[in-house]
Hints:
The structure is a homodimer.
Chain A: E1 18-22, E2 25-33, E3 36-39, H1 40-45, H2 66-69, H3 73-86, E4 96-98, E5 103-105, E6 113-116, H4 120-131, E7 146-148, E8 154-156, E9 161-162, E10 165-169, E11 180-184, E12 188-189, E13 192-198, E14 217-224, E15 227-228, H5 229-235, E16 249-251, E17 256-257, H6 258-261, E18 265-266, E19 288-289, E20 291-299, E21 302-310, H7 318-326, E22 337-339, H8 354-357, E23 365-366, E24 372-373, E25 381-388, E26 396-405
Parallel strand pairs in A: 6-22, 8-16, 9-26
Antiparallel strand pairs in A: 1-2, 1-5, 2-3, 3-4, 6-7, 10-11, 12-15, 13-14, 13-22, 14-16, 14-17, 18-19, 20-21, 20-25, 23-24, 25-26
Amino acid sequence: MTSPKYRSHFSLANIPFGVASSPKHTIQCATRLDNTVVFLGILQQAGTFEDVRGLPSDVFNRPTLNEFAALDKPIQREVRARLQLLLTDDLPPGSTEDISSVILHMPVSVGGFTDFSCSLHHVRNAGRAILNDETPPPGFFNFPIAYNGRASTVVVSGTPIVRPKGHIIDRTAPTEKKPIVFGPSKAMDYELEVGVIVGKPVPREKGVAARDADEHIFGMVILNDWSARDIQGCEMVPLGPLNSKSFGTSISPWIVTLDALQSFKAPGPTRDIVLANHLEDITIVEASYDISLKVDLMANENTTTLSRSNFRDLHWSGRQMVAHAASSGSDMRTGDILGTGTVSGSEQGSYGCLLEMTNGGKEPVVLEKGLKRVFLEDGDVVQMTALAGKDGSGVGFGECVGQLLPAL
Amino acid sequence: MTSPKYRSHFSLANIPFGVASSPKHTIQCATRLDNTVVFLGILQQAGTFEDVRGLPSDVFNRPTLNEFAALDKPIQREVRARLQLLLTDDLPPGSTEDISSVILHMPVSVGGFTDFSCSLHHVRNAGRAILNDETPPPGFFNFPIAYNGRASTVVVSGTPIVRPKGHIIDRTAPTEKKPIVFGPSKAMDYELEVGVIVGKPVPREKGVAARDADEHIFGMVILNDWSARDIQGCEMVPLGPLNSKSFGTSISPWIVTLDALQSFKAPGPTRDIVLANHLEDITIVEASYDISLKVDLMANENTTTLSRSNFRDLHWSGRQMVAHAASSGSDMRTGDILGTGTVSGSEQGSYGCLLEMTNGGKEPVVLEKGLKRVFLEDGDVVQMTALAGKDGSGVGFGECVGQLLPAL
């Protein structure tokens, strides 16, 4: 289920793609205008896209967007242009429903989920919080560092997240050597990220240069990389995170295309070193996007805004993430998700996870009505939103929301 | 293509499952007796399995084994028993071909690939080689440590592997701070592993106890976790391996079922600490299998046996790997592969990768005719084989073979 309150995110300038169903409509690809969900399978059957060259018949009458996302960009652009024209007019009967009566599903089938760490502020803030050392990881400025997450547990916004159990170092033990115990995480965190959705695949052993990689990016979503910090601290050396992340990752239901984001280009980061050729990005002045991100925490019926950050502060672009992941010979498949890693700014109020906000769990965050949080408590709802450009831009991502449920 | 030389691995006591095609047969599920490939789609159409309760019609007329692997064990056992009876007799015409005229394909569609590090000898040997420190990783004795690999690049035996390019620390640079450069790996290695194939799925948030997890293991294959050690050394801190492994992972084509391995049970490891309840394994005397593993290197037309080790020396079982991966709430899906990590023994001749054999690249291995290797050279062929029990047991895995091709 989804909320009607993001009406202003979905103007004619957006035309996002998702997957929807309702009592009246079988599951199929859809778009959204204001608070109206438009069922694209119905539109295609009515002949709306008949003269779009290269568009497979019945491509929208599918439970995922993968087949459409894999197409060449000009075909996707033509569909978008057609929709922008059409949606100003009356639509065929039975092709629309109000957002409040519709169920939104995972927009793509996810074959691979690779999570990066693209924010210099995040690695500095997190390093300071955990190790009292701001030094970024050794390769940070040379390539976007990343690990593979669990693709099967990427879930759509609204899906509850159960507090995971795992192995944890018991730092309260009176012994000098702290024992490892198994139990529910006591350090549940969110990570405010953006997920890049791979469109047209990159074949194995072909690679792709960052400057050409937009052709392989269908669009972007908000991504919450739920993290159990205590499990992570116990398992991460030397092979990286596994069970501290694999229990669930949430994404927003509407994929905002790069075409919709064209008007919101922003300068990318400056760099001190020369990159490998395949990582050299497009011209710096439009290498990023101006996308405001926000995290709200709903705790005991009060809502507190925890942080505001911006996509343009990332040190690496989606194009560079794709180029790096494909650079040693791996393919990239349609529906693969590449997470940016936590999008943080340099100061309090712009930190994209509680680990940073609480300085590693040492300084509680004060919420509305004096409530405090070090990490998430059962019942807490984390709501992330994203908007391109300024208020009224008409291009937003809606929300990525999830409630933390007690351990089983 | 596959070699006829493993005839003795595939007696009536084995009955492995794979996927095959030929000019005469469309791609479908198959088994192998001696050097004869038996096409199970054809057999099922001929009515062979008609009275096997719960077996879906046409389950073998598929390009992967996933649908069959997901079934309850009693159904799979009944099919195996039926085949053991049937194969002693004449088979329906057109249902068999000699192994030499058949193409073997990936036996399952792999949704997730998680690679563990279950060998205490390997972590000690590798630690000594890289860091001059044998201390296992912090959690090693508490749970089987692991990372997620790239599922889309798991390939079937016989598929060539292209030497990957990646970011590497240039240790030859005259500067004090060694620069990171991008280029072809100069430290290509193999890792001798066994892959556990998930059968009946484990739902999200359900978990499974190790002692019950055999129900979710369809069978096992040989797995070569090709590794670019120099790329790995540059990227691994702090998020673990990514591009140093994601270019390709090879598996043997025939899945040997746990039923076929029943006669080869062997004692598991002794432990000093009490495990979390879900990791407590079945009775120690039959917690493992006696499976001999061997690596041969074919270089310049000479074959040298590089190592022999045994599955029973692993510190963690396949059941424990499944239980750990599902313990924080992740599902396990049919076709997921869980790699054991390098299977090594405690002494030279039993080390499962070149990193260990060459003491971190410092001491070359001497091959037949005086050739030497520190790491793999272009054109080298790595061939891994595995046999349950002693010579003549009749239950083997055949081979997992791959040639290293020059960087593109």
